[in-house]
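Internal QA ticket QA-208
Title: Verify multi-chain structure generation after dependency bump
Assignee: T.L.

Test input:
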Amino acid sequence: MVPTNYYVILSAILFGLGVFAFIFKRNIITIFMSIELMLNAVNLAFVAFSQALGKVDGQVFVLFVIVVAAAEAAVGLGIIILIARNRQTLNVERVDLLKL
Amino acid sequence: MPKYPMLEYLWIVPLLPLLGSATSGLFGAKWPNKIVNWVAIGSTGLSFLGALEAVREFLESGQVLFHKEFFTWIAAGNFRAGFDLQMDQLTVVMVLVVTGVGWLIHIYASGYMAHEGGYYRFFSYLNLFMFFMLILVLAANYVLLFVGWEGVGLSSYLLIGFYFLKKSAADAGKKAFIVNRIGDFGFMLGMFLLFRAFHTLDFQAIFTSSTLQGWPVELSGHLGTLTFACLLLFMGACGKSAQLPLYVWLPDAMEGPTPVSALIHAATMVTAGVYVVARSHILFAHAPTAMLVVAIVGCATAFFAATIGLVQTDIKKVLAYSTVSQLGYMFLACGVGAFSAGIFHLMTHAFFKALLFLAAGSVIHAMGGEQDMLRMGGLSKKIRWTYATMLTATLAIAGFPPFAGFFSKDSILFSAFGSEPGGYILYGLGLFTALLTSFYMFRLIFLTFHGKQRYDEHKVHVHESPNNMLAPLMILALLSIVGGWLAAPAMLGTGPDYFAEFLKPVFGGVEAAGAEAEAHSLEITLAIVAVLTALLGTAVAYWLYLKRPGKTDALARSMKPAYTTLLNKYYVDELYAAVIVRPLLWISTNVLWKGADVAGIDGAVNGIAEGATAIGDGVRHAQSGNTRSYAVWVVVGALVVIAVIFFWPFGGKAVVGMVR
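Actual output:
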């Protein structure tokens, strides 16, 4: 039996990588993927705690997160395609029309 | 049908001019002058007829006092102020003077103003004035009286500033309004004091109240409620009737058209103060100190204004100071307890002073707008009728028998002579003022109508005024002659003073009993002295201005300081400017405007706005529009929350507890 804290540490590492990539990457698709990475890191933590505490709440949450992530992916990819078409770029720093 | 219909519907009398004012004011702009004439003169004339009928019914009914409540205007707690009108002998005199003289002046104005712009506006204001003046004299309580009081002030302001494009006229209007406001302040305080003492402001309720019956006479040195109330009312009267120290607005008010000067600033409105004092005579009778103040102020004003009148060269200015001086006489009469003499002089003055102004207007009309007497002279042959009527009025005001002014002025001087305390001083000053009066009036006559002609005949086409201007002059001239004859039998010793007898139901309670035989011979003596004084004044004027025309300049040079002081009206305007106006302006500019308004109020409002802008300006840099910076903020925020939960010594547990 793998101890729970291993899962939690792995989850934290994955989440940290996701945050890191989210902040420092410029390509929108990469940023999008880092968000997915963070979501799945959280999922991992949920499942680990669910296992450790012997409750199913965590697993139910995971299912919800997957559903929401799927929906988000659909919308997000649509937005990305539109940005790519309109701006001819995927660099997030060029998408700054709201800037003063 | 009621027995006395006009009395029952007394409100019609003031309402007619109001309707006239509204009609010509609202619709008259496009009407030809003729229709405005019909509306204005018609409404005033009907009002005069209504007043005559009401007076006839009142006298026929033989009541002491007619009083009717038409509707309640203000009701608050136990305070009630109603639209109540009353009529007694005092009101009879006032109403007839106001509507009668007012009507004549309306007719005159239709000729005088014929070529002026804003014709309908002029008559709308003039009718409005008639309405308020009638409210003032018919009111049965102080509150309604005050409505009329303020209303005539408003009309006066509007009419002084009638030529509002001229700065001096607009300024004069403002000056009149503001100076009057100072007096009104006292008047209102007086009303409040009366309400505190009597719990009502109805004339009859106060005058017949048991509180007043049992009120001890407040002897001199004892300053009681009534003394204060009377002095405050008199302060209002000083403002309205141009007495010291609030007389400064009246000479400036001559900026208005001449019919206005005649109606408002000579015959009617300025006598409102005298009317109020006479109306409140029962109160004044309980306050001898206040009476003394009234007498002294009146006498001092009469003298003071007469001295200024000596050297004025503007024909209307002379008459203005003369008006102030004559109003002083009326107050002198009221102050020494001779209320009926004061009202008598009010009436005769209304006749001859209105006539003087209208005749002066006729002269100005003839001279094509010239008002400086030094540029007239020798007009008597060219405008005979104006000359004849003006001479009549001058004889009346100077106090020659049998003209009206002789009787009224004489009864005032007689009353002053017999008054205590200080009767001789008041009499002496009054007599000396009579000398000055006859001097400056004949100076006016000689400068204007006699002597060499001092204008350029080729530039000025002197012409007599049209008939609608001359007719009122003649009627007023007739009244200036016969107006005083009511008192003639007393003077001749063949009967009573019918005017005083007529007013006896009103003033009977407080005035001294009729003149005795001994007093009668005294009155004759005083009358002879007065006539001799007037003759002396006339003779001096004749000698200085006709016999030795150059002498005046030499005289002016030899008494230069006195002459310049008089010419500059004792520097009173300058004094007020230095002591009151300029400090007020300074405070207004530097403290109220730049301090309170700009720095305080504007500063606070603008400061808040600027602060919000500055904060927004600083904070807006957080919103760079760069998506990744937002991401950083999200992460930082999350980290802060986590830090608080886990590491904050106290808050952390609480937050965790909330989560659980």
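Spot checks passed. Residues 1-160 of chain B form one domain.
Status: verified.
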